[in-house]
Amino acid sequence: MTEATPLLEVTDLVKHYAVRGGVLRRRVGTVHAVDGVSFTVGVGETLGMVGESGCGKSTVARAILRLVEPTSGSIQLNGLDITHLGKADLREHRRSMQIIFQDPFASLNPRMTAGDIVGEPLSVHGLA
Ligand SMILES: Nc1ncnc2c1ncn2[C@@H]1O[C@H](COP(=O)(O)OP(=O)(O)OP(=O)(O)O)[C@@H](O)[C@H]1O
Ligand SMILES: [Mg+2]
User: Fold this and answer.
1) Ligand 1 within 6 A of 67 CB?
2) For ligand 1, atom 5, which residue shows the shortest CA distance?
3) Which ligand 1 atom lies nearest to the CA of residue 18?
4) Is residue 112 part of a domain?
5) Enclosing domain of residue 20
6) Residue 47 lies in a domain
7) Which of 10, 111, 117, 125 sits 20 to 30 Å CA-CA off 4?
8) What is the pLDDT of residues 72-88, one digit of tens each?
9) What DSSP string describes the chain?
């Protein structure tokens, strides 16, 4: 690999979930789902993450895509810090990142035609 900008650079990523309880839904505790994760992925590289159930793999993925808001840390995509991008700016970058779910029966809506499934993201991003 050359000294090019990494495709993805995650630095000190932290995600804590509040645990709420009682009738007033007060914060009664904190789940430290992800606590200080850093890694880089270069162009053409693949990164695998392995760990026991509940260790935070999915939370890392969701936080990178900003599907959950990171508690702290930073995410750089192609050299651009996307950690604090607003919704409109983020939409542009969502085109270059996505989760691919393993189970096609859960991922593809059986009530939609194949054409609609392929067409929806093109329409959302105003591409066609
Ligand atoms: N929305 C949430 N609110 C509170 N706690 C959560 C939430 N989502 C995940 N967690 C907790 O965060 C921790 C990490 O969960 P996560 O789903 O990231 O684990 P995982 O490594 O993907 O597990 P698996 O291998 O089972 O998919 C777990 O303790 C989980 O219970
Ligand atoms: Mg998971």
Assistant:
1) no
2) 17
3) 4
4) no
5) 8-102
6) yes
7) 125
8) 999 999 999 999 999 88
9) --SPPPSEEEEEEEEEEEEEETTTTEEEEEEEEEEEEEEEE-TT--------TTSSHHHHHHHHTTSS--SEEEEEETTEE-TT--HHHHHHHHTT-----S-HHHHS-TTS-HHHHHHHHHHHTT--
